[in-house]
Design a protein that fits this description.
By secondary structure, the protein is α+β, with helices and mostly antiparallel strands. It contains five helices and eleven strands, in the order ββαββααβββαβαβββ. Helix 1 packs across helix 4. The radius of gyration is 25 Å and the shape is elongated. The two termini are 33 Å apart.
């Protein structure tokens, strides 16, 4: 007999990266198994080098009650001029020398000048731009780096974790409500809101997702769900988000299979209790 722990994943912003690099950080349209298992491992107090053990064998499914809206966060890095805080000047002789040269060129000797009081936040590697005489980043003085980070805004999901070990699921549920490490929904800037852990139900993933009421903020009456399945199941598709190890130097994922289906929550399903 298997059991399924249902989780509520909701927040103003979520970010479920699949192929993220420095300049382009994407987000999947729904939570990934790797990210959710990683969140459970963090709640349990595991570090990235801890073997996943039984967590790797959990069967995963997700229901999109409120799919949310993709939003882009646009950044530029470098190529600007930078003000300087007095304490930076005092503690870094390179900044002091660069600032002195700039101020002397403009107004005469001025180290300690009252104008410095209104300046703040310079990077360490700075130099004087020969054209304008302003302070610029020594490494990024000419070309800005443009980055894009994608998020899901105003989304809510119900995920299911199926295992034959109900004790493991209860341990995970307790840990998610009293985590030993910080939790976030895919990215550190996306902390979860409200209650995460729901009920542990007897039965498999699809049964549990059907027996779980729609979330209070749901926009779908028959939401799509993605259920982990056997690779020989009809209409199943591969996804590369099965975690193997989270160690920064050995991080690895492999392929699992899932099928997409509509879920019609039963009218008699218990209401989801959300504790703010």
């Amino acid at each position: 007999m298997t059991a399924t722990l249902v989780l509520r994943l909701a927040a103003p912003l979520q970010a479920w990266g699949t192929v993220s690099r420095f300049s382009q950080r994407d987000s999947h349209t729904r939570p990934t198994k790797s990210a959710v298992i990683g969140m459970c491992a963090a709640a349990l107090g595991h570090d990235r080098s801890t073997p996943l053990g039984a967590l790797a064998h959990i069967r995963f499914g997700v229901r999109a009650d409120r799919p949310g809206t993709p939003v882009r966060d646009y950044h530029t890095v470098g190529a600007g001029t930078y003000p300087v805080r007095p304490r930076d000047v005092i503690t870094d002789h390179r900044r002091a020398a660069a600032l002195s040269r700039q101020m002397e060129a403009a107004t005469g000797p001025a180290f300690g000048h009252h104008q410095i009081d209104n300046w703040y936040g310079a990077p360490k590697k700075i130099s004087t731009d020969p054209g304008s005489g302003t302070l610029v980043s020594a490494e990024l003085s000419r070309t800005a780096l443009i980055t894009e980070r994608w998020y899901l805004a105003d989304a809510s999901f119900v995920t299911g974790l199926e295992s034959p070990d109900a004790t493991l699921l209860q341990t995970i549920a307790d840990a998610l409500e009293h985590p030993k490490r910080l939790l976030w929904l895919g990215r550190k800037s996306c902390p979860p809101s409200g209650t995460i852990a729901g009920a542990i139900q007897e039965g498999d993933l699809e049964h549990a997702l059907t027996r779980t009421a729609l979330l209070p903020d749901a926009t779908e009456t028959a939401p799509w769900a993605w259920i982990e399945t056997d690779p020989h199941t009809a209409s199943s598709t591969p996804v590369t988000d099965q975690p193997v190890i989270f160690h920064p130097e050995q991080r690895a994922h492999t392929t699992r299979w899932e099928r997409r289906t509509r879920i019609n929550p039963e009218p008699s399903a218990p209401l989801w209790e959300v504790i703010p």
